[in-house]
Fold this sequence. Notes:
Blueprint: H1 3-9, E1 11-13, E2 16-18, E3 22-24, E4 48-54, E5 67-70, E6 73-76, H2 85-92, E7 102-107, H3 112-123, E8 129-133, H4 144-147, H5 150-161, E9 168-171, H6 179-189, E10 193-196, E11 200-202, E12 205-206, E13 211-212, E14 219-222, H7 227-241, E15 248-251, H8 257-266, E16 270-273, H9 276-279, H10 283-297
Parallel strand pairs: 3-4, 3-16, 4-7, 7-8, 8-9, 9-10, 10-15, 15-16
Antiparallel strand pairs: 1-2, 5-6, 6-14, 11-14, 12-13
Helix pairs in contact: 3-5, 5-6, 6-7, 7-8, 8-10
Amino acid sequence: MNDTDKAMLATEFCGMAFQSPIALLSGCVGFGEEYTRVKGFSNRDVGAVCLKGTTLQPRLGNKPHRVYETPMGMLNAIGLQNPGAEYVVKDILPKLDFNETRFIANLSGSTVEEYIEVARIFNDSPIDAMEINISCPNVKEGGVAFGNDPDMSARVVAACRAVTDKPLITKLSPNQTNIAENARRCIEAGTDGFAVINTLMGMAIDIEDRTPIIGNNQGGLSGPAIKPIALLKVHQVYQVCREHGIPIIGQGGITTAEDAIEFLIAGASAVGVGTALFYDPLVCPKINAGIVEYLKRHDMSNVAQLTGSLRLN
């Protein structure tokens, strides 16, 4: 890809310079190093990497099975397995190359106080931004309950805002009545951006045993099956965000450049890729190339021109 093509992909998100509109999604790339072992993969192909969900104390996660393939998608219930925020900052972040891309921490917790402490720890680190995970459907406490209640969502955002000046990106749940109202409340509480959407709650059943296949009984559904829902949610949240200049990472089933372009047109400023990496770790350069080809074909000079360009019927 030449310099002109790279300039077409370069964009800004929450004050951060992204070399591509692609962000690798939390939970799909470990702590930023997993896919670097794949021949041909490079973090330089993406604008940002969202690290695995991190809590204050280490977590073992849920019992197996944790992952199950579904038609056009995947159920997962990892349960936020992680080594704890202090370990991530002291032992993992120093091994990451911050010249390659931007790295975004994913904050998770069971209480508002836990979110505050995790935010404090990452505030004292080289991390570029923080994603507030208030919408994880794979744990039995906190998380998704916060994300489905606008009051609690705003409370968590405000609490994190009080302890950091780093960009805050709130990850919104699709499993709620009015996602746009939740977004509005989070903007008032101080969020700098959004990730839309997190996974949808789902289930798979073993018909011989008549038991759920996922050890946690339910899990988060991701992949192409949820893309139409995710597109609508991005469009709905964008109606609130455009009034305040708040950017969105649109995500949910993106596997091709065409998918990514749809999310940008719907109102996203960046796009998240996750489940697609499981079967094509080298999908990001293909998406980048497809976006550039589209921009050239439509006489556009930069990917930012696509954001919110949807013309309703």
